[in-house]
């Protein structure tokens, strides 16, 4: 009986984590460049059941195999989905879209400095702070292709297709765009990513000022998945409640006897 209880409880844990992932996707549907995540659910190793008999000599022997028994599931990992979102023209000079060439592999990203660490982001919605540094949506310093902070002589600037930033007639810096080929090396930090391994190379992309890539969250599908996960959670919850009532009944019978 306890095996079924543990199986249902394990499924509830995995489904709760799935709900958290889907809710986070739903909450970032308006976040530019956001990449939706998927939870990867795996099953624990199955147990092989066998029929055992005791011929009376104190030794047991296997008469035949009954079959396999599942021992539950767990959420193995969370993987971001790097498909492209829709492109919107905003007209804002601080919005930048990275247009990848045909046959491009991996994911093009901007580099930002957060708390002394270099992170990578797909969110091209920037801003110019009071000191005229170019900042990301999370407040990090946007980095050039040389890995340096970008400080402008004026809050007004233009961006060429090759990433050259010009302000007050001065060539300030070249905006950095990096190519992450092995997405498995990415570790999510908020809505940004940390690269575990060698630093990514510069990406051969085209910069488009005044455009933004929207989140790649499919709103309808995410809502449907969230409702399905909720119903599955409720079903497993009822199983746990049924086992709990059975255990209470067994205890009552034991006390009467």
Automatic annotation (TrEMBL):
InterPro entries: Flag_bb_rod_N, Flagellar_FlgE/F/G, Flg_bb/hook_C_dom, FlgE/F/G-like, LlgE_F_G-like_D1. The lineage of its organism: Bacteria, Bacillati, Bacillota, Bacilli, Bacillales. It is found in: Bacterial flagellum basal body. Belongs to the flagella basal body rod proteins family. Residues 208-252 form the Flagellar basal-body/hook protein C-terminal domain. The keyword Cytoplasm does not apply. This is Flagellar hook-basal body protein. Residues 106-166 form the Flagellar hook protein FlgE/F/G-like D1 domain. PANTHER family: FLAGELLAR BASAL-BODY ROD PROTEIN FLGG (PTHR30435:SF19), FLAGELLAR PROTEIN (PTHR30435). It holds the Pfam family Flg_bb_rod. Keywords: Bacterial flagellum, Cell projection, Cilium, Flagellum. It comes from the Bacteria. Residues 5-35 form the Flagellar basal body rod protein N-terminal domain.
């Amino acid at each position: 009986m306890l095996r079924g209880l543990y199986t249902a409880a394990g499924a509830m844990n995995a489904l709760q984590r799935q709900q958290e992932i889907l809710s986070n996707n739903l909450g970032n549907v308006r976040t530019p460049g956001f990449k939706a995540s998927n939870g990867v659910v795996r099953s624990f190793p199955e147990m092989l059941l066998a029929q055992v008999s005791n011929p009376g000599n104190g030794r047991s022997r296997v008469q035949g195999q009954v079959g396999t028994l599942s021992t539950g599931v767990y959420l193995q990992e969370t993987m971001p989905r790097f498909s492209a979102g829709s492109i919107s023209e905003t007209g804002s000079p601080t919005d930048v879209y990275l247009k990848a060439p045909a046959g491009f592999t991996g994911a093009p990203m901007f580099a930002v400095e957060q708390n002394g660490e270099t992170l990578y982001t797909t969110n091209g919605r920037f801003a110019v702070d009071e000191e005229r540094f170019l900042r990301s949506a999370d407040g990090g310093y946007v980095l050039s292709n040389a890995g340096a902070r970008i400080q402008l002589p004026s809050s007004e600037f233009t961006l060429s297709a090759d990433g050259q930033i010009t302000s007050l007639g001065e060539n300030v810096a070249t905006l950095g765009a990096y190519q992450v080929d092995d997405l498995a090396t990415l570790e999510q930090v908020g809505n940004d990513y940390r690269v575990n391994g060698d630093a990514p190379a510069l990406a051969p992309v085209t910069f488009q000022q005044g455009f933004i890539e929207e989140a790649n969250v499919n709103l309808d599908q995410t809502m449907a998945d969230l409702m399905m996960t909720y119903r599955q959670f409720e079903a497993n919850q009822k199983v746990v409640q049924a086992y709990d009532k059975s255990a209470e009944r067994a205890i009552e019978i034991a006390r009467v006897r």
